[in-house]
Design brief:
CATH topology: Four Helix Bundle (Hemerythrin (Met), subunit A)
Order of helices and strands: HHHHHHH
CATH class: Mainly Alpha
Radius of gyration: 20 Å
CATH architecture: Up-down Bundle
Low-confidence stretches: none
CATH superfamily: Cytochrome c oxidase, subunit III, four-helix bundle
Structural class: mainly alpha
Length: about 200
């Protein structure tokens, strides 16, 4: 493939990724709008329900995702310079951080489930309507975000394999760059989720 054809192919892939991310923005944007409507309607209930959130774990997870976003960005810069092994190492660190995020989120979920706070549980249904809505949105929005994190970890693992096998190289890294865009999007979504669910008390 000629250099010009390679640039055209890379540009096409990037446009495709941006279109995909735009659809994801619309998807999450709808949920954020729904959250805003219910929070306005049940402001006090949302504040009361948010008191049950673990701010420490939420903050740790935020730091983890922000650091992982830095790592994937540095991995792209490294492959641009031809530093394949350094790029691979940074991709591996990104995957490990993504999995760490999911493990922490699992313990957060289990802490609520063990005390009976989960969708349609008898204890949850005894709470105020706004609190029920808060936890419903919490499970749906953080659950979908967690699914996106998991998908990102799988995709970055493939990028790691491609980097190690020289499929991704200094002059052919469009797939890694697009994966980085996806990972940054996942991080941005969490940056919005974090204050909505953890910092409104």
């Amino acid at each position: 493939m000629s250099t010009e054809a390679g640039h055209i192919d890379a540009a096409g892939k990037k446009i495709g990724m941006w279109l995909f991310l735009f659809s994801e923005i619309l998807f999450f944007g709808g949920m954020f709008l729904l959250y805003a409507i219910y929070r306005y309607k049940y402001s006090l209930d949302f504040h009361n329900a948010a008191a049950a959130e673990n701010i420490v774990l939420g903050t740790v997870n935020t730091a983890i995702l922000l650091t992982s976003s830095l790592c994937i960005a540095l991995s792209i810069s490294a492959i641009r310079r031809g530093e394949r092994f350094f790029s691979s190492w940074l991709q591996l660190v990104t995957v490990v951080m993504g999995l760490a995020f999911l493990v922490i989120k699992y313990f957060e979920w289990m802490a609520k489930i063990t005390v009976g706070i989960y969708p349609n549980s008898p204890i949850l249904l005894k709470l105020q309507e706004g609190e029920i809505l808060f936890f419903g949105l919490y499970y749906v929005m953080t659950g979908l975000h967690g699914l996106h994190v998991l998908v990102g970890c799988v995709v970055i693992s493939f990028m790691l394999y491609f980097t190690l096998t020289r499929t991704i190289e200094r002059n052919n890294f469009a797939r890694l760059e697009n994966t980085g865009l996806y990972w940054h999007f996942v991080d941005i979504v969490w940056i919005y989720l974090y204050p909505l669910f953890y910092l409104i008390t």
